[in-house]
């Protein structure tokens, strides 16, 4: 990975919770089901066994991915941001585009991004364009649908 995997404390906690739930709850229950199904005889036509093995591979793959992401994570608390006058990791930004449409976005880690909820990944084109901007700045963003200009109206950070 050539760039740091920034993540908020809440985002890291969500990754950790998913890992713990898969590892401590789902995986052991699935292993038990597979063992039971294997004891029923012919495995070639045993749906519980076949589906269980497939699901176990999916869980193990997800556990490996979560483990790598947590190891690479650099937890950054936006409430501790010293420069609150500019857009940095964890900032909640209100933007206005050329058509006077307002958008409120929060810059978060790539693993916790959810565009529908207004959380934009730190390495997304929009987030990269906004980095370091201050209130009143105009930023041009190169999006798949074309270029757009945004004016930064407000910047806020969570409090401790």
TrEMBL record:
Keywords for this protein: DNA-binding, Elongation factor, Protein biosynthesis, Transcription, Transcription regulation
Gene3D superfamilies noted in UniProt: Transcription elongation factor, GreA/GreB, C-terminal domain, Transcription elongation factor, GreA/GreB, N-terminal domain
Span of domain Transcription elongation factor GreA/GreB C-terminal: 85-157
Record Pfam families: GreA_GreB, GreA_GreB_N
InterPro entries tied to this protein: GreA/GreB_C_sf (IPR036953), Tscrpt_elong_fac_GreA/B (IPR028624), Tscrpt_elong_fac_GreA/B_C (IPR001437), Tscrpt_elong_fac_GreA/B_fam (IPR023459), Tscrpt_elong_fac_GreA/B_N (IPR022691), Tscrpt_elong_fac_GreA/B_N_sf (IPR036805), Tscrpt_elong_fac_GreB (IPR006358)
GO molecular function, one term: translation elongation factor activity
Residue ranges crossing the lipid bilayer per the database entry: none
Role description: Necessary for efficient RNA polymerase transcription elongation past template-encoded arresting sites. The arresting sites in DNA have the property of trapping a certain fraction of elongating RNA polymerases that pass through, resulting in locked ternary complexes. Cleavage of the nascent transcript by cleavage factors such as GreA or GreB allows the resumption of elongation from the new 3'terminus. GreB releases sequences of up to 9 nucleotides in length.
Similarity comment text for this entry: Belongs to the GreA/GreB family. GreB subfamily.
Protein name: Transcription elongation factor GreB
Native organism: Sphingomonas citri
């Amino acid at each position: 990975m050539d760039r740091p995997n920034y993540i908020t404390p809440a985002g890291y906690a969500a990754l950790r919770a998913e890992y713990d739930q898969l590892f401590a709850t789902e995986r052991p229950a699935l292993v038990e089901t597979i063992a039971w199904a294997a004891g029923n005889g012919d495995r070639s036509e045993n749906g519980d066994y076949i589906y269980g093995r497939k699901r176990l591979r999916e869980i193990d793959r997800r556990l490996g991915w979560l483990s790598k992401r947590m190891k690479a994570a650099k937890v950054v608390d936006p409430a501790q941001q010293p420069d609150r006058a500019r857009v940095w990791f964890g900032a909640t930004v209100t933007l206005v585009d050329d058509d006077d449409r307002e958008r409120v976005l929060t810059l978060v880690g790539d693993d916790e991004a959810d565009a529908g909820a207004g959380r934009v990944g730190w390495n997304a084109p929009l987030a990269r364009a906004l980095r370091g901007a201050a209130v009143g700045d105009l930023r041009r963003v190169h999006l798949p649908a074309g270029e757009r200009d945004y004016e930064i109206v407000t910047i806020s950070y969570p409090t401790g």
